[in-house]
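Fold in tokens:
===
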Amino acid sequence: MARGKKKETLTPEDRLQAALVPESEQPYPVPGNWCWVYWGVCGDFQAGSAFKNEYQGLTEYKIPFYKVGSLKYSDSNGILYDASNTVNEEVRIKLKAALIPKNSIIFAKIGEAIRLNRRSINPVPCCIDNNLMSFHAKVCLTKYVYFWSLGIDLYNYTNATTVPAIRKSDLEKVAFPLAPSAEQQRIVDRIESLFAKLDEAKQKAQDALDSVETRKAAILHKAFTGELTAQWRKEHGVGMESWETKKYSEICNIVRGGSPRPAGSPEFYGGNIPFMKVADITRNTGPYVNSTEYTIKEAGLKKTRMVDRNTLLLTNSGATLGVPVICTFKTTFNDGIAAFLGLNPDTLLFHYYFWTSKTAALRAINKGAAQPNLNTDIIGNVEISLPRENEQCEIVRLLDNLLAKEQQAKESAEGVLEQIDLIKKAILARAFRGELGTNDPSEESAVELLKVIV
């Protein structure tokens, strides 16, 4: 009580000074008519409420109830549009859920979702679940705070517990650069104008990136239907009748690996024998895999399988099934991988590209299953049209060249996207230092804004 009474007896000047960040704690210089204040002074933080399952999934009411996953559903301006959960006033009161004013900034406050650093703005009054927190500005434009918040990493404000979480009291003490009202609007307008141009360029780069996979699929389709080497056959006097359709079970032996269990047991793991796991293949970016993360001991050999170098492997389990790779060393491998034994070593790249063309189709076979899986019978029954070996070599040569160009196009588009993100970050950094050329030093100081609310 005494503490509350002391606060009540503070003079307006004392309250103003308490709201200002001391010069020694200010992150960087700002224009003279700006001021550094504590974020909590500028508005109100509100934590979310528990959202019982029995009230979830209703969409006919007027009050949106946002969950942490809702933050994915915001437009390029940060406006939330998720409508998968709604409540009425009766339910809101029953849940004791606070009604968050419209134009609040909403973000994750607990768990790994904080790392995603997402922000959204609610266009209408709403409720939020207990994984979220909101901020409603009193002395600033919502968009001004929103853009400023994009430049900070909220994960830096989590407490050191088993589950990362953000405390309201910690955010209230974050230093915030307060600009005069008119300058806030000019900054928002300038950022939106610059971002609109960047978003236009970003969309073009994203379209180019998306088209790479479509073109790659088309190239691979042409390769294994004979279209890619039509001119080559004409020049060599060869027809499509030279192609033979075979099942893989007819041209090689397909075997599945094994996993010593329990996984990680020192009885089996940690030796000097390479042990291939699915992750060793899926994190690979080319046709060849050259190492494994894990090893096993001699005792583990009885529970797995060894293959020689230059063996084609294929992931056959889980969400990342259907990824082929050529192993360049002798290794054991787990039961999430199949091996093709007996293929001609000189044609392995041809088969690698064939299975690359089949990845999407393979994943569709068990789509919806809890644990998608390809057994050796399914793999063995896949048919391939085989040209003669010299034409296989020509197909590989053409695919190497064409897919290398597509990879360059992909990397170029990814580079543009990365550069745009960096430019946006630079714009935000300059904006909240007063370096966008929008500030009018003759305008009334932002301190006058504070005097209204402290």
About this structure: The chain is about 35% helix and 15% strand. The longest strand covers residues 269-276.
